[in-house]
Specification:
Blueprint lengths: L12 E12 L2 E12 L3 E5 L6 H8 L7 E6 L2 E7 L2 E4 L2 H8 L2 E4 L11 H11 L5 H14 L15 H14 L4 E5 L7 H16 L3 E5 L3 H7 L2 E6 L2 E6 L1 H6 L4 H13 L1
Length: 265
């Protein structure tokens, strides 16, 4: 699946990461990661547990600080590397950068005491200071889009895991981000509910939403991504189209990982 087959060279670079490093104490979790994400592209990160993919996502979403390298988002410099020292931008720039992306976690992180609609609309109203009636209207439209239109006044505990995850996606979209980052959005769900989330992500992909998705779902990666990045031991081992990386992997580590994943299914 190549969406429109357009030339990546013409596309705006949404995320530019160069020589990214991250250590936890003596443990090098990310070793010199460089990659770009282009506008409208869906990039899936695959790899065994402990390969560094979730840490990488936490670094680019600024939930973790990096120990080396540089990062740019939509042309804004988040971390610059001067003479080998990585320095974060000032607070105002980082605030602007954070507004370019939305985050969806594996465990939903909804506010239990807020209704579904309030979960989706609270930040646009209070953080972005947008017009309340407009936000509420958009929030309801997002819930309709997620097939949750009739659940606006429910509370998270009244919904299934899959429904809660769709609320989390609606909440991220309500902030009007330029891209979305997902950390294993289906890992807490059973297979039937996973299919619901995959449908939503495919729909977003068809609308050209830029997405970076960490997942273990090989079939999903194959069907929704423009590019698959296989990570192991903190490095990018292999990357390319799903056809290249998943169906015709070149590297032994990739082959072994995929073989192991197929045998577990």
């Amino acid at each position: 699946r190549s969406r429109g087959g357009s030339n990546v060279a013409d596309k705006k670079t949404m995320v530019h990461v160069e020589n990214l490093k991250k250590n936890f104490g003596k443990l090098e979790v990310l070793k010199d990661i460089s990659m770009d994400v282009h506008e409208g592209e869906v990039v899936v990160l695959l790899g065994p547990s402990g390969s560094g993919k979730s840490t990488f996502l936490r670094c680019i979403s600024m939930l973790e600080t990096v120990d080396g390298g540089s990062m740019k988002f939509c042309g804004l410099e988040a971390v610059s590397n001067v003479n080998g020292v990585s320095t974060y931008a000032d607070r105002q720039t980082l605030k602007e950068i954070r507004e370019t992306f939305g985050l969806v976690f594996q465990n939903f992180n909804l506010f239990p005491h807020y209704s579904i609609l309030k979960n989706v609309t609270d930040a646009p109203i209070h953080v972005q200071k947008r017009d309340k009636s407009e936000v509420l209207k958009e929030g309801q439209e997002l819930l309709n889009k997620m097939s949750l239109g009739d659940k606006a006044n429910y509370y998270p505990y009244q919904l299934s895991g899959g429904q809660q995850q769709r609320v989390a996606i609606a909440r991220a979209l309500a902030m009007k981000p330029k891209m979305l980052f997902f950390d294993e959005p289906t890992s807490a769900l059973d297979p039937e509910l996973t299919a619901d989330i995959l449908r939503v992500l495919k729909q977003l992909a068809s609308e050209k939403m830029t997405m970076v998705i960490v997942t273990h779902e090989i079939d999903f990666a194959r069907s929704v991504s423009d590019r698959v990045i296989f990570m192991d031991s903190g490095v990018i081992v292999e990357q390319g189209s799903p056809k290249d990386v998943i169906d015709n992997p070149k590297n032994e580590r990739t082959k072994n990982f995929l073989k192991k994943m197929q045998s577990e299914i």
